Amino acid sequence: MSKYLVTGGAGYVGSVVAAHLLEAGHEVTVLDDLSTGFREGVPAGAEFVEADIRDAARHLDPSYEAVLHFAASSQVGESVADPGKYWENNVGGTMALLAAMRGAGVRRLVFSSTAATYGEPRTVPITETTPTAPTNPYGASKLAVDHMITGEAGAHGLAAVSLRYFNVAGAYGPFGERHDPESHLIPLVLQVALGRRAAISVYGEDYPTPDGTCVRDYIHVADLAEAHLAALRAARAGEHLICNLGNGNGFSVREVIETARKVTRHEIPETVEGRRAGDPAVLVASAAAAREKLGWTPSRPDLAGIISDAWEFARRHAADRD
C-alpha cells in the first residue's frame, strides 16, 4: 500500500481517480479548495483537506509516494476572458506544488494535461509528436506546466508523466460530470433529456465529415482513471513522459445526439447554429504511446456505454437536487 496526494480530487476526473486508488488498497489524501469541486465528490475513505494548492507544502511530507495533480482552472472561454486567472492558478499553482514536492522529498508526479496543448492540428490522429500550438490561455497554461515539469525532471530527478486528455465522459458510480457552467456535449445533451434545457445546439453542419458535424474522441472517465494508475507504475526518475489518452475513434456531434436519444428514450430536440470560431472538423487521438509505454488500452470504448453511465449519474443527481 502507498500513500498518494490527489490535488483537485473533489472534481470530476480527480474523484474517479481517487476512488480507483482507494479500491486498489492505497491511502489517499484529497486536497481541494472546492472552488469548482464538491465535498460529496471526495470518495469515502479518503482524507480531505480543504486548501489552495499553494498551501500544499503544509500538507506534504515524505510519507507520500506521489502526487496526482488535477487542480486547475479548465474553462476555455473563461481563459480567454480572464487569462491572468489561468496563469496564476495553473502555472503559479503548479510551480508552488513542485516546490512543495521538492521540499518534502516526494519525487513522483502524474499531471492532468490536455489535448488543448495541440490547438488546431492539421493532421489526425494526433500523436505526441504533433506540434503544440494552443489557441487559448487554458491550453497555453497547461503546455507551460508541461515544460515546467520537463525542467523539474531534468534538474531534480522528478519521475513524471503528463496525460493529455481528449473528451472525457461517462461516470463511475456516484462520481460524474457536473460542471457549472457546463460546456461539454454529453452532459448538455442529457440536460435536454432531463427537461432542464429546451434543445441542444449543433454548431455547424457543413464540416468535411460524414454527417457534416464535428468529430471528437470520447474516453470513459474510468478508463482515464486506470491510465493514471498505470502512469504511476511507469514513471521513472529524471524522465518526463507525455502520453495522449483517447479512444482512438471519433464520434460526430450528431452521432452523440442520436445515441443519447436511444439510451435515454427521449426526443432531444436540436437547433442548428453557425460554426464556432476555432472548432476543427476532426480531433481524434492516437493512444499508441499509452499502449506501449503505460500498457494501457481503453476497455470501455462504446459510445452507448459511455452515455449510459453518464445518464444514470445525471438522473440520480437530478433526483438528489429535486
Task: Report on this structure.
The chain is 38% helix and 19% strand. The protein has a 7-stranded parallel beta sheet with strand order 3-2-1-4-5-6-10, sandwiched between helices. Strands 7, 9, 11 and 13 form a 4-stranded mixed beta sheet that branches. Strand 1, helix 1 and strand 2 form a beta-alpha-beta unit. Helix 3 packs parallel to helix 4, helix 5 crosses helix 9 and helix 7 packs across helix 9. The chain is globular and about 55 Å long. 48% of the residues are buried.
What is the count of DSSP helices, taking H or I runs of 4+ residues?
9
Secondary structure: helix percent: 25-40%
What oligomeric assembly is this protein in? single chain
Task: Let me know the average pLDDT.
Answer: 95
Number of strands: 13
Largest sheet: 7 strands, parallel
Largest sheet: spatial strand order: 3-2-1-4-5-6-10
Helix/strand class: alpha/beta
Q: What order do the SSEs take from the amino end to the carboxyl end, as H and E? A: EHEEEHHEHEEHEEHEEHEEHH
Cα-based radius of gyration, to the nearest Å: 19 Å
Shape call: globular
Distance between the termini: 40 Å
Percent in strands:
15-25%
Question: Stretches where pLDDT falls below 50 for ≥5 residues?
Answer: none
